[in-house]
């Protein structure tokens, strides 16, 4: 965060015609935190722009993208599997991690609904320090290679209504292994993700360095209401400021 | 400058298993300006720390260093020539230019006295967008390879008291070819650099994109007075903010 003037200072030794020249490099505090945004099923990166801009203004580098089968993609939405989605998220993560201002120790992921599910899965494959999941979805592990659009909706609905643990759920298993800071944001009137699913996520995050669960009152799953959007943006940026600051104090 | 939230936004196209994934990278406005500081004869990089910190707080990357024969160096001061000094400055410039946040189109150089003379010479060899010279020294081109400490002081004194032009002066010739923005800062009570030398510099900067000449009232050449130092720091940071902003507007 650009806390009005944090400075990093490094000694540099140059050799000039065999002679030693001692220098000092001063730069704004770097690396900066990097954040990857993963949108929900049927959405696109446009959903995440407001939050990404807010975090960039705090001095972070942000990466949003359209999942395969959505928006800028030429794949058929009905054909993409969860494995395809996970591969897209991995590629997007690697793109962000290759940025010269970003280091893997300082990467956060912010996922919504299906994108939250994929974000949880990502943490099993790449270093993630901060994980914010808004209304994350849950799916049975079975039918992993069935296109997501062709999963039996009734089976999925029932799965979400029962308590689940990491024993046979890849996403919850990744959450149980997650050691970073986690934020879970629910919508009070979520018509797709029942309370049981949030409870399963909350229970799974038992090894997280810190865990916070917030509910946005009156909000629906898609949360199109601008007032709710603003509440979420404030919640997210406040949480990230706190987390980044405390990670600095911790060194 | 971190103008509380300038954002750079770039489209990124990823290929994942032969599929197209469209992303957007948002980052704080980069590259950032880079500034090289060149201290005076008999001084060291400690002289420049206050100004370097002030510019780093504005979001710039800064590099200060000790010239060969000074402070951290193991060379004998009495043996170093102007050519040695120029080579040190070139190496320090190249070090700054290699920084991932800096591009050569956005490098400024800030030199004091002998360091101002070397900074002017540097502009003939490397791209410099902003050049700030405080009480820059002048020397005859002759005896180029004589150690600086062994130059005839009386010859140098007389050279500075007469109007000089770029016809046979490497430093003034570099200033005449300089197309960036230039700031010349004089001390009212300079006991080493007479008014004629400043006038020669001012005349030489006739091709600069912009040129400003300021005099710090009551100041001596070394300007040890803290009040004068603060005036200079404010002058320098204000000038650089203006220059960087107008270069952004100009694209």
Summarize the structure.
With 251 residues, chain A is of the alpha/beta class. Chain A contains seven helices and eight strands, in the order E-E-E-H-E-H-E-H-E-H-H-E-H-E-H.
Structure characterization notes:
The structure is a homodimer of 251-residue chains. With 251 residues, chain A is of the alpha/beta class. Helix content of chain A is 34%, strand content 24%. In chain A, the strands form two sheets. A six-stranded parallel beta sheet of chain A has the order 4-3-5-6-7-8, with helices on both faces. In chain A, strands 1-2 form a two-stranded antiparallel ribbon. In chain A, helix 3 links the parallel strand 5 and strand 6. Chain A starts with 6 loop residues before the first strand and ends with a helix. The interface between A and B is large, with 51 and 51 residues.
Largest sheet of chain A: 6 strands, parallel
**Helix- and strand-based class of chain A?**
alpha/beta
Question: Given the structure, what is the number of helices of chain A?
Answer: 7
Overall radius of gyration of chain A: 20 Å
Residues in helices of chain A, as a percent range: 25-40%
Q: Overall pLDDT of chain A, averaged?
A: 91
